[in-house]
Amino acid sequence: MKYLFxxxxxxxxxHFSAQTLxxxxxxxxxxxxxxxHIYNSNDKHHTHSNxxxxxxxxxxxxxxxxxxxHINYKKKQVIVNDLKPITIALEENLVSLxxxxxAKKLNALNVIVDVDIQVSPxxxxxxxxxxxxxxxxxxxxxxxxxEQIFLRGFDIDHGTDxxxxxxxxxxxxxxxxHGQGYADLHFVIPETVDKIDFGKGAYYADKGNxxxxxxxxxxxxxxxxxxxxxxxVGQFNxxxxxxxFNIVNNNKQSAYIASEYILTDGYFESSQNFxxxxxxxxxxxxxxxxxxxxxxxxxxxxxxxxxxQIPQRAVDNGLITRFGAIDDTEGxxxxxxxxxxxxxxxxxxxxxxxxKVFYNRYDFELFSNFTFFLEDPVNGDQIKQKETRRxxxxxxxxxxxxxxxxxxxxxxxxxxxxxxxxxxxxxxxNRRQTLNRIQFGDINETNLGSYVSANxxxxxxxxxxxxxxxxxxxxxxxxxxxxxETQSETASIVSPKLNxxxxxxxxxxxxxxxxxxxxxxxxxVVVAQNGNTILPASYxxxxxxxWKPIPKVLINTAYWYLFLEQEFVYVGDAGIVEPSGKTxxxxxxxSLRYEPIDQLYFNFDANYAHARASEELKGQDFIPLAPDxxxxxxxxxxxxxxFFGSAQLRHIKDRxxxxxxxxxxxxxxxxxxxxxxxxxxxxxxxxxxxLFDTEWNETQFATESRLQNEVNSxxxxxxxxxxxxxxxxxxxxxx
Length: 735
Known about the structure:
By secondary structure, the protein is mainly beta. Helices cover 6% and strands 58% of the residues. The protein has five helices and 45 strands. The strands form nine sheets. It has a 22-stranded antiparallel β-barrel. It has a four-stranded antiparallel beta sheet with strand order 3-2-5-6, with no helix packed on it. A four-stranded mixed beta sheet has the order 12-11-16-15. The longest helix is centred in the N-terminal third of the chain and has 16 residues, at 2-17. The chain is globular, with a radius of gyration of 27 Å.
């Protein structure tokens, strides 16, 4: 009994001597380090530093050993000598897989992209999305149009089934003149991107419309470590000039501006005459230790000509070359102005709130010709799609740690209003004359959203139940009608989520993610169908593992399934998307990151998907352009002496271009090379797109068309040729 009393006394003393430790993680330049991992090796509790580098770690006692790690810094051990607030400075380090720990959080898989973006930074707007494992893109309109996206057995077109944001600012355009969910990321300057937050599936309570296949959020840098001037010069009269300049940079506030100008003729026989101007500015101020405000403003404008998608038969019979055109008067122009105001507040030790208010002004005009002389043998089938848009919105996200339980609670609300004026689809000739308007009207679409989510930690298990509610109001004024009338519909949808994680240790996480998502229909479709299937839902799950079998190997494998109530299918002759039937998809994702020697990185991502229409007969149930196998792999190296380089391969398998697979979109394998040397503050580099000059088709569609000299129409593959061997030289100066 005496010994039992002694043991109980010791346990009692140990329990009540454990307290809360507050601290801050900073760099050697006194700059706060965000998302540092603080781990108590004695009792296995952990936490992360917030946007200001601050952290709170519970159950700490004198003598405990803390392990602090971050992908860009050397791991550091700190012994707790007392429980006074502590400041820990980390030493910068080249990226190393050894520094990575697999945290107890919903998007732990993001660590893969954290490695990729540090080892091989993005150099173009096209490369930004390609950093997401398993995501492929295709450009088919002169470089100025938003890219076509492929992910998890989806031809997402320009964004129908993926939520894309930049610093929380929505990129997807609802009820867009060209297609639902249109997501043009060209306003993002790639060198400003600091982190890519992504998730596959619809398991994330703070993500709403279009979150079926997944989401991507690009986070721009809060501050610059150096000023930067960069010049790229390449084949096809390609030039790019970039400037990034600090205005103020200290632990109280930061501000910088960035601008890029791009022009190129492109590799087509008809010059693209492409040019783009981007201007970006960001300011952050720590008003107090608990209050932080930020302002981000940007503007971009772009103009281009395009050769469009060409029919395979025209190349086979020698009418044109692969880089020729049937109608080279395609092209367009677009511009976007963004303003984002943020206010973050730490309410207490256990509670915080983040608020955003945003405004967007957008203009778009696109000329296309998919069918040539099928509909109009005299004038041709050129179409114009045009709109002027204003977006107003706000979000507020609250988070609180439980005081009696191990876990946290979060909740949020959001408002978004899109007003698209003169949303037009018209038949035109030579980009000059409008023959007739097919659609012409004004759209007013409002989305109110809210969510609640909680994390409960039970030892090594984390349970994450969540619920989201969205309300939509659709209004359309058809300017082609004689009488003024506002057509309107409303709809709501509830999206539950439940995610379960088992963190065996800092190197292994098993997970089961489940959830319901949705994508909205175009307002014009909604009012035309009298509200039939306004918000088609998706249902899916992921079962997988993230693990580090050895310190310099990181692996992710997952099996996933997704059911979609209503598919969106591309319509070539109108250049829009239209609703279709129910679909089922399932597949396997495999990702590997390996550092065989210091600073040599091997990356490998393989993705298999089986996608079929649920309500069609077998053999007639293929989903056009849905990829069933994609693979990316490569090697990257960065030495301490200044040399760096990478070789990256991407492969997509042949895939059906129509419902019975009688027309096939050919797959391809393309390799890119990047080499350079960093001498003091100057960097020299060479980039090669399509190193082996592979003949490949970047985008392909099964389209019925008729050429001017043809009697009958033909349905076959129409394609945009992929980039040939393309050499670019780069020089940049930091100061």
